[in-house]
Amino acid sequence: MNTRQSVAKRTFSSRDSSRKAPFRSSSSSDSKPRSFDRASSYQPSEASSYGSRSYRPSNAPSGASTFAPKPRYSSPKPSYGGSSSYSSSSRGGSSYSSGSSYAPRGGSSYGGGSNYSSSSRPSYGSSRPSYGGSSSYGSSRPSYGGSSSYGSSRGSHGGYARGGSSFGRGGRGGGGRGQHIDINKFINKVKPTDVKTDVVYVPKHTFNDFNIAEEIKTRIAAKGFVTPSPIQDQSIPYILEGKDVVGIANTGTGKTAAFLIPLVDKVMRNPKEQILIMAPTRELAIQIEDELLVFIRNTKIYSVCCVGGAPIRKQISELRYFNNFIIGTPGRLKDLGEQKYIKFEEFTNVVLDEADRMLDMGFIDDMRYMIGKMPKDRQTLFFTATMSKEIERLVHEFLNNPVNVSVKTGDTAKSVDQDVVRVSRGESKMDKLHELLSQDEFSKVLIFGQTKSGVERLTEDLMKLGHKAGSIHGDKNHVQRQRTLRTFKENNINILVATDVAARGLDIAGVTHVINYELPMTYDDYVHRIGRTGRGGATGKALTFVAH
């Protein structure tokens, strides 16, 4: 069974075949009219649909008007990145939107830049930022990662190009500039004495102390856990009491189990409870469901994972049955809600995981739409790794008298040794990277770039140099991304090149190094990138390429 089938079927396989499917409207997105933005229809230059040339019949008299046939595009796929699309009007799920479009070959974008959906909603290309940073292209080809926009020059693999250095920080989803980050913040040498003398957290509870079902305690013990992590120790008691909670903690500290354990107990006590869990990326949503299945497998508790890029018809089929847990990305959840397959007014529990990332990615309107339809009397759990003024406003908007639980010990984990790799003008950035990856200590490496096309080219060049590498980014479909993640987790490849789509929430064991081949957009993005190493008490290293 391939990955897509296993993801779609795993919760369904354990279901009680006697469950009745509630009535749902038989209408689907395929029957809905497709929506197009008139203001953004593609206008070929000089009234021509084939480059700058026009058709003139060979026998036409001089001075006769030229014939410019209607544009036709071979690909019906949606647009890529943060720019707009001019996809084929013969297929649903795509829409014309304003601005120029960069549409690389090789299939639809299922990432943050645009969501492929059979609904009549317009593509997300013009309204949601892409994961990969810049998306504004002129006549140039970007260098690896690239910066916000390019002039007429072509970027080099060494990282320098007229009109924009690849060390620059292009705007996410539209070519704007990123946050200026002091290079010194990328340097933090870990000393052995720092780790040894670090204050050890002493939990107030063990898992057996919590007022949760014995079956849950048994499953926790089977995983080898006895004492909870700080975020679990402090937030689980409040969640069990039914209070709204704001949880702030570093990455890799067990936030997912902090809300799953008490919520599963809540469902065991009342099988009619329904819980909606939102996550910014499909990888994180799938990971949450995998962890949930540890607690609910072979029980009468049911779940479904609804993410963009996966077959929507399979998700609709699952939603015809009662589900205690619905986990997904905001865009797909809203689509399904608009089609009446999810009734948000029936949910009295909602979890916003990695809420700061969802805000960064432009999901705020979708979040407001769904939460606005939920009952006022609900329990809302809000988990984040950073707390900005925008996040504080969301907390006041979505939560009712929340309990703040903060166990954050610093911006970055003390177990991650951080340093920079200085590249002088004229030096080859690729040669520097190849030299590092050839060392034995770089046994499992996660490399971050900015753009999807840059990440793909970097991966291809690494493979030509003999490295076992794979890539994940928004232009990869759901099955491709899951397959690559699995091969990386199983050590079939030891280098994973990614855009920031991989930076949040993913728990990949044994990552020895994180390399920022391109600078992150913000310091928060940097924190989450390097949080993929040094997890679970292990030490890791983070290296950032900077211009010298």
Oligomer: single chain
| Overall mean confidence score, pLDDT | 73
Global structural class: alpha/beta
> Total number of helical segments?
15
CATH names the topology of one domain as Rossmann fold
Provide the CATH top-level class of one domain.
Answer: Alpha Beta
Order of strands across the main sheet: 3-4-2-5-6-1-7
Q: How far apart are the termini?
A: 49 Å
Q: For the CA atoms, what is the radius of gyration?
A: 24 Å
Question: Could you state the CATH homologous superfamily of one domain?
Answer: P-loop containing nucleotide triphosphate hydrolases
Number of DSSP strand runs: 13
Shape: globular
Estimate what percentage of residues fall within beta strands: 5-15%
Residue share in helix: 25-40%
Would you identify the regions where 5 or more consecutive residues have pLDDT less than 50? 2-18, 22-177, 193-197
Structure description:
- The strands form two sheets. This protein has a seven-stranded parallel sheet. Strands 8-13-12-9-11-10 form a six-stranded parallel sheet, with helices on both faces.
- Among the domains are: about 185-195 and about 415-545, Rossmann fold (3-Layer(aba) Sandwich); about 200-405, P-loop containing nucleotide triphosphate hydrolases (Rossmann fold, 3-Layer(aba) Sandwich), CATH 3.40.50.300.
- The termini are far apart.
- With about 550 residues, it is α/β, with parallel strands linked by helices.
- It contains 15 helices and 13 strands.
- Helix 5 crosses helix 6 (about 280-295).
- The protein has helices at about 5-10, 190-195, 215-220, 230-240, 255-270, 280-295, 310-320, 330-340, 355-360, 365-370, 390-400, 430-435, 450-465, 480-490, 525-530, and strands at about 245-250, 275-280, 305, 325-330, 350-355, 380-385, 405, 415-425, 445-450, 470, 495-500, 515, 540-545.
- Residues about 1-20, about 20-175 and about 195 have low confidence and may be disordered.
